[in-house]
Amino acid sequence: MRAALGVLALAVGTSAAVLGIATLGLGLRRGDERLLRNGRRYVFVVLAAAALAAAAMEWALLTHDFSIEYVAENNARATPLLFTITGLWAALEGSILLWALVLGGYLAFMARRFRERATDPLVAWATLTGLAVALFFFVLMLGPANPFKTLADVPSDGAGPNPLLQNHPLMAFHPPMLYLGYVGFTVPFSFAIAALVTGRFGEGWLADTRRATLVAWGFLTAGILLGAWWSYEVLGWGGYWAWDPVENASLLPWLTGTAFIHSVIVQERRGMLRVWNLSLVIATFCLTILGTFLTRSGVVDSVHSFTQSAIGPMLLGFLGIVAAVGIGLIAWRGDRLRAPGRIDSPVSRESAFLANNLLFAALAFVVLLGTVYPLLAEALQDRRLSVGEPYFDRMTTPIGIALLFLMAAAPALPWRATTGEVLRRRLLVPAWTGAGVMVAAVVLGARELAQVLTFGLAAFALAGIARQFAVGARAHGVARVVRSNPRLYGGLVVHVGVVLVAVAIASSSSYSTKREVRLRSGESATVRGYTVTYLDSDRERSGQKTTVSAQVRVERGGDDLGVYAPAISTFPNSTSGIGTPSVHTGLREDVYLTLVSSPNERGRVTIGVAVNPLILWLWIGGGVMALGTLIALAPSLQRPFRRREPTPAVGLRRQNDEEREPVPV
Amino acid sequence: MTRRLLPWLGLGLVVTVTLAVVLWPDGAPSDSARARALAEEFRCPECQGLSAADSSASTSRAIRADIRDRIEAGQSDEEIRQAMVDRFGESVLLKPESGGLGLLVWGLPVAALTLGAAGLALALRRWRRQPAMHATPADEALVEQARS
Amino acid sequence: MTRHPLRLVALAVGVAVAALAVVLALQVGDDQLQAQPRSELLGDGAPDFVVTTLDGEKISLESLAGKAVIVNFWNSWCLPCKQEEPALKEFYERHRDEADFAMVGIIRDDTKKAAGSAVDERGIEWPMGWDPGGRAALDFGTRGQPETYAITPDGLIAGTQYGPASVEGLETLLAAARGQR
Questions:
Q1: Contact C3 A334 (CB under 8 A)
Q2: Are C165 and C146 in contact (CB under 8 A)?
Q3: Which CATH class is domain B27-92?
C-alpha cells in the first residue's frame, strides 16, 4: 500500500518532468507563450510528487512497514522516533529521495519567483534544465535506487539504521543541510546553461540567481560544519575533519562555490570573467554530482559510503553528459563571451578577486587530486595507495594562509587602482595589529609557522573589518550602514566567522594534548591541569543497543566541572563497539573523554582524555558565517533588488565603496 | 617619499624578525614528536580514513607502541616506514611517495598554481600596456543585448 | 579577433575531465570491499611471535619449528569468528593427532576475561594464545579478524585467509604449508 503509493508518486513525478521538458521545449521552439506558461506549472507537480513519495516513505518508516526493503534495512521496531524519522536519509535510496524533494522545492521556488517572466526564454530554459536534472533523479529512483522495493518474505523486525547514524541528534540536521546546499547549486547551474543557450550571458543571469547561490552556499557551509561537529561528538577520535573522501566531496563544491560568489562581483562591476563564472557554476554542479558518485558508488572506501549499488554508472553517465554539455556550450559560445573589460592595476580589488579565485581553484584541485589519486594509481599502475592528512595538510595549509592574507587585505583595496595614501589609511593599522599579535604569539611560545601566521593574519583581518564597520558606522550608525549595503557587510560578517574557524583550526591542530589513562574505581589522573576521576561504570540496554558507560568526574584546580559519561555501545548489526565521547565544552578549551576499553577483569577502565583548545569557536564561527549569509540575503535599502534591470556593467557604475573616496584612475 | 614608506618598512622588519625566530632551527625533534609525526603518516589498517595517530583501534595502538620501540632501538624514519610497508603494503602510507607516480599528486597542483599565477601576471601586464578600449557602437549594441 | 585565452584552459579542463571519467569508469564494478587484500608476508618468513596460552604455556614460532602451522586470529565478540568456528573445529579434529601439525589461536583485540570464558563456553580445544600489546597481530599485518595464516615447517608464510574460513579452505592452507599445492 505504502510502497504502491510511493511508486505511484515517483511515476507521476517522472511523467511530470518529461511533460514539462517537452512542453517547454516545444514552447521555446515555436515561441508559443501559452506553452511556456503551461510548462512551468509541471514544476509544482514534480514537487508534489516528490513530497508525496517522501511522505509515503516516512509513513512506512513510522509504521515499521518491513515489507519495504529500505525500511527493513534501516529501521527496527526498537529504533527511537527521531532516528525513525531520520531513516529517510540513513541510506542511499532514501537520500536520493530527499535529494529529489529538495530539488523539487528549489525548482518550485524558482518558478514562483520568476512567474511574471515565464515567457522569458532565459527563465524557460533554466526551468527546462532544472526539470531535466529532476528527471534524472526520478529515473534513478524508478531504476537502480528504488526506495520502495518490496520484500517477498516480510521480516518480523528490521535491522535498524547503521549504529553510527543513531547516536546523535545532529543526524537530524547535518544531512538535510548538506543536501539543501548541494542541490541548491542546481539553480545557478540551470541559469548558467540557459544563459549559454540563449546567448544572454551578461549580468542578467547572475542577478537572477544571486540569492539562490547564497542560500545554497550558506546551507552547504552549515552542513559541512555540522558534519564536522557530528564527527567530533560521535566518532570519538577527538578530531572533526579527517580528509575522508566524503568530507572532501562536500568541500569541493564549497570551494568552487566560494570562488564563484567572489568572482561574480567582478563581473557585476566590470563585466569581466564571463567564461570563468559560467565555468565555475558548471564545475560546482559537476562536483556535487561527482561527490555523490565517488561516495555512493563504492569506488573509494570511506566511513560514509553506503553499500555498493548500480547507481554508479548512471551517476557517472549523468556527470559525463553535464560536463560535455557545459564545456561544449562554452566552447560554442566562446567568441561571443569575450568581455570588453580590462584590469588597470595589480593592486586593486578586482586583481585581489582574481588571486582569490586562483587560490580557491588551486585548493579545489588539490582536494580533488588527493581524493582520486588512489583511483589513478590503481588504474595506471595497479597499485593500492592511500592519501590522507599529511598530504592534504601540507598542500592546503599554504594556500589557506594565502587566502587568509587576501581576506585581510583585499576588502580594503579600492576598485580599479589605488594610491599609497589609501593603502596607508586603510591597511597600516590593521597590518600592525596583525604583526603585534604575531609577536605576542611568538613571545608566548608559539613556534609553528602556520599557527603564527594564522594568528597574525586573523588579527589583521579582524582589525580591517572592525575599521570598515567603524568608518561606516561613524557616518550613519551600524544598522543603517549595514542595511544600505547588506551584501558588503554581510560578507564581512562571514569573514569574521572564517577568521574564528581558522583560528580554531590552527590552535586545535597543534596545541591539543591527548593521553590514555588506566584507572580503577576511585583513582584519578591529571592531564594538562584537569583531574579526571573514574567513579563507576554502568551497563544499560535500550532498544537494540547495549551501552557501557563510565562515570568520570572532571575537576580543574579544585573546581568541580561535573560528571561526564563516555560510553561504548554495541549493536546487534555491528561487530565492533561504537564509542560515544563525552565532552566538557569551554570557551577556552574542551576536555574530550572517551571510553577506550570497558572494565577488565580487575575493574580497570582505559579512558582517553584529550584537551582541545578553542574548539567551541569552530561552531561559533560557523554560526557567525550563517548569520553573515543571512545579512547578505537581506534586501538593500539603497538599491532595492531589481528584477529586470541587472546592475550596470563595464565600470559604468559609481564608486560604491564604503567610503566613496575619489580614487585617481 | 621615505617618510611615507617608513611604517611599511618597519612592519616588514617586525614580521621578518618574528618569522626568523619561528623558523630558527631548535635542534632535532624529540622522540615523542617523531613518533607522533610517524604515526600520523600511517593509515589505521582496520578503520577507514583515520591515521594510526588518531584512531584508538587495537592495531593503531600496536603500531604506536611499535614505532616507539623502533625509535628507541635507533631506527631511522625510513626504516620504520619500510617495516610498516612490509607488513601492510604501500596502502598503509597516507603520504604519497615523493617520486614516481607521487610526482603527479605533489607536482601537478604546484604546476597548475604557478601556471595560473603566470597567466594572471601576463594578462595584467598586457592590460596595462594596451590603452583603455573604447567601445564601438557595435560593441555597445552587443552589450545592450547581453544585458537584456 | 584573437581567440579567447580561456578557451585553451577550457580545452585542458575538458581533456582532464574526460581522462578522469575514463579512470572512474574503469573502476565502476570493481568491488573494492570484496577484493581480497593480498598479504604482504606471503612467501616471506613468518613473524617471530611469542604468545602465552590461557593455560599459561608459552608458544612461539621457534617452539613450532618443523611443523606445518595454522595460525588463526580470533576474538570472542566477532561474529564471523563464530561463523567459522564449526569449520575450525572439524578441521582441528581431523589433524590434531598428526605429529607435524600444529594449530594456534591468537586473541586479537579482546580482553583476557571475555576470551577465556568464550573458549570455555564454546569448547575450543586448540591452544589459544594471549598476545600482549597486539604484537603478533601487528607483525602478521592483520587488518581484523578472523584471519588465518599457514606456516611451513621451515617458517615461511605459505597462505592466508581473510574472513571466515571453510574446511576446504583450511585444507588448502595446510596443503600449502606442507608444500603440496
A1: yes
A2: yes
A3: mainly alpha
What pLDDT, in 10s, does the model give residues B18-67?
999 999 887 788 888 899 999 999 998 887 778 998 888 888 889 999 99
Alpha helices in A334-448 (DSSP H): 349-381, 389-409, 420-443
**In chain B, where the domains are located:** 27-92, 102-147
Q: Is residue A609 part of a domain?
A: yes
For A385, which of B21, B91, B139 is closest by C-beta distance? B91
B107 in contact with A, Cβ within 8 Å: no
- Domain end among A106, A132, A161: A161
| Cα-based angle A73, A78, A82 (whole degrees, multiple of 5) | 85
**Contact at CB, A327 and C17, closer than 8 angstroms:** yes
Q: Is residue A63 part of a domain?
A: yes
Per-residue pLDDT of C20-46, as tens digits, reads 777 777 666 554 444 456 778 888 889
Residue A90 lies in a domain: yes
ipTM exceeds 0.95, yes or no: no
The domains found in chain C, sorted by start residue, are 50-177 (3.40.30.10)
Contact A330 C4 (CB under 8 A): no
Nearest beta carbon to residue A373 from set B49, B56, B96: B96
Q: For residue B4, which phi and psi values (nearest 5 degrees)?
A: -70, -35
- CATH of residue A580's domain is 2.60.98
Which residue among A135, A161, A187 closes a domain? A161
A25: buried, middle or exposed (CB in 10 Å: 19+, 13-18, 0-12)? middle
Distance CA A430, CA A223 (A): 32
d(CA B128, CA B131): 7
Domain of A566, in residue numbers: 513-613
Picking from C20, C138, C140 by the largest number of B CB atoms within 10 A of its own CB, the best residue to mutate is C138
Q: Do A379 and C79 lie within an 8 Å CB cutoff?
A: no
Establish if C12 touches chain A: CB-CB under 8 angstroms. no
**C-beta atoms of C140 and B57 within 8 A:** no
- How many structural domains comprise chain A? 2
In DSSP notation, C119-157 reads HHHHT--S-EEE-GGGHHHHHTT--SSSEEEEE-TTSBE
